Request: fold
Amino acid sequence: MLPEWKDRIRHWIKTLERELYEPLGTIDLDGFCTYEQLSYEDAMKGDFRSMPVGTAWGKQWEYAWLKGKIVVPERAAGKTIVMDLLPGGEATLFVDGEEFGTRRAEWVRKAHHYICDQVLTRNAKAGESFDLVIEAYAGQYFPNEDGCCTGPVRPEDEWVDDNETIHTVIGNSTFGIWHEEAYQLFMDVKFLTDMLKEVEEDSLLAARIEEALQQFTLNVDFEQPREARIRDYVKAREALKPVMSLHNGTLAPEFYAIGNAHIDICWLWPYRETERKIARTFAQQIRLMDMYPDYKFIQSQPEAYMICKKLYPKLYARIKEKIKAGQWIAEGSMWVEPDTNMSGGEALIRQLLYGKKFYQEEFGVDCKLLWLPDTFGYSAALPQILRGCGVVYLTTQKIFWTYNGSDRFPYHYFTWQGMDGSQITSFLHMDYTSDTTPDVVIRRFKDRVQRQGLGRFLLPYGYGDGGGGPARDYIENVIREKDIQGVPRVRFAEPNKLFEDCEKDCETGEGIKPTYVGELYFQCHRGTYTTQCAIKKYNRQSEVAMREAELWSVLAMDKQAYPLKELGEAWKILLRNQFHDILPGSAIARVYDDAKEWYQNMLKDVAALDQSAKRALVKDSLSGMTCFNSLSWQRKHLTKVNDQWVQVTVPEMGYSACADVKKTPDQAVACELKGEIIVVNNGLIRAEFNQKGEIIRLTDLESGIERVSNPANCLKMYKDTPRMFDAWDIDSMYDMSPVELDGESKLTVLEQDAWRVTLLLERKVSNSSWRQEIVIEAESRQITFRTHADWQEKHRLLKVAFPTGVHAEDAENEIQFGYVKRPTHRSRKYDADRFEVCNHRYTALHDEKGGAAVLNDCKYGVSMMGDEIGLTLLRAAKAPDPYADIGEHDFTYAYYVWNGAFVDSGVVQKGYELNVPVTEMQGESDSISLMHVDQSNIIVESVKAAEDGSGDVIVRLYEAYHAQTKAKVKFNVPVKEFWCTDMLENKQNKLESAACACDTCIELEFHPFEVKTVRIVR
Reply:
């Protein structure tokens, strides 16, 4: 096309866009500002005062309630009336007292998207009036260059949190006529110009489009009165019909388009703003459904629905109507869209248990799809968990984020096989807030990685995170893409339809579904395993607290009612906090202020339930002490009696008074000072420590093998300034910028007893201080490091290194219900990309005769290189929270060594023991054990009452060491029936008692890493 035609078309389109909206008058606004979260009714009692154009308002976190009146003038009779609102920020709109929609966020891409959806009436009557109310959010500042990062921060660049700064101003809000004829023509010509970006330049189709666009400029004369212009728009659109009606070919790919709004439960705004985002977005999308009966929209999180139900019940009722009509798709399965790396296995099951239960009870929907478009990688345990909860499909997209030049994932539609062999059908699309313009749709298919056997694609589209979901343009484009030559066929469809049709393609041989085995590791956002470490600790503590409270409440069921409702509510708080921008540490500071308060209140409530149950199990006594062990193996517990350490044996999953007491160990722990070196020997291991608290030698006295190859418990600090996404990322070259740690340090003997020796390390670490108690107990191969850090760093990363002396090509990193193996080398691209990975309670290196593991109580980030395990302890990101992690922290890690095969190492048990302490309560009791498992590799993860309130008991067990196993499980309580169930507690098959001396014993066969759920009818 000649340049003069290109520029002519550009001018015509630009002018046409100005024709969409004809302002009629200004909306005068009265208002007031508040920090309170007000209902509409309470806000209407506020002190409204005139806030004319130019009024500055909006300190950080502040809201303005504004109201104005719109009266239709005579000349607008019969017209479509819309609004162009400029309240000064993203806003929830109410018209005539009802939730109306949204004034979209400031980053919306096209100006008319602020107007086109704000339809007050399509057939105005002269004198008709509308009462408009706006709840606008002023927002807040956070450091943000490109992708929530800061780059290097000079001392003079430090951000100061200023709550007095005014953030915004009242603009000129207007109402006016929406010219639908101009809009439809605009959509046609914009559609064709977008097509030209991607169709072959010398094709016949391109020539036809160019001719049509040229003719459009000849058919439309803007320099005439409006009514004449509108007639031209109608004629011009008619002239475009031949090219807009060109039909697609037989092999055109098919796209399944689903509107979505991706509302983060929290991110760059606090939870209370999410509550408003939900109202404004949901109301907006319902009005679009009214306008477009074929349009479909998905919303995936029960937490969001619960907000709407509580705060906006009328709106919620309308949503339920749209769900019944098939326009609003209630799918997603989990309570929120969580992080799946750090969330515990039981927590992921509860995401599905409570999520699916909500969908079923509220909407009559049995969810089959896990919708997780924005989560930062997917645990290899997930396929088994999904299958166990009746979920058969997974869709996501973030795995394709390879902005650091990573190894691109090879499939879109595939079978994902998890670590236990379970399989889930998966589809990876390429964006979750996509546009629907034809150039975007064409590129989506051109850029696919799976070139053969795939003719269908999922297209989630719409503004997310406060943008309000799809605007009209998005839907109008889909309508035009139903069947037009040169563009994939696009139709409104729910995601499950895509999966069903892809399955049919595979059955007929037209489709291919490859299999991918192992975790879906995300090759970015590795810093999320560490950032906001206090939240990580709260998460681990909360998961343990829920486990404890449920078990002891089951054991106390004969004495008091099981607190089913209270525990369920506590779980939902924990599940909310596992959202993929809360637990990973990628939100603003205010989010963590709120989350810490939620955790603290939840832990307080759960502790009360735990204590109530335990109190019901013991007899009041001023002299006695009862020890409680919730783990499924007998434990040796050190406690003090008359100020002396003694060892108490506590039964598995039970409790006992301090009766089985061992006063002296078989071999006392010895401590010797050799100059500045401190030597500790307990008969099993001999450790030498320097003044930095580093283990310079560790000898296994049974085998004679040295279990460190270089100083261990060695702190290593690095400069850590990600090029993008401060809180999210650790760049691969971080280890090329070490920071010298030459501050003063002192190691002394704090405690010396036959049962344990404690060393005290006091050290300066860069600008931070470090206090550590190093504990070695009798009869133990573990060295424990109880740490207090006052962290005062900027763009720094701190690791603790343990060079194990073990040669192994892979390390075992614990994940939910087992472990994954990851490389200790950087041989190929995908190996090198996994330079920082997630672990739960342990990471281990071993050969066939022994090994070593680093345990932790709240640290998820870890690296392995050669024989070294590097546990990531702290980071100091600057965006979006410039003060992330600054302050005091307490955490514990440990180094554990063993001889023999990994399956007999006890590493899993040691990891649990570090996280789940034996607890004590004053009072007498008998020695009680709920159950006994005869195979050490079978772990009881949870014991709880059934969700249906029947009084049945649910027991969840799993195989932890990748070993096929038959195990006998004996219950020490009366049992009527045993049932194997799915993870949602639905009975599947009845279990017969095993060939034992009692009828409360069952035999279970586990394949490697298998999870089993048993229902006990008492």
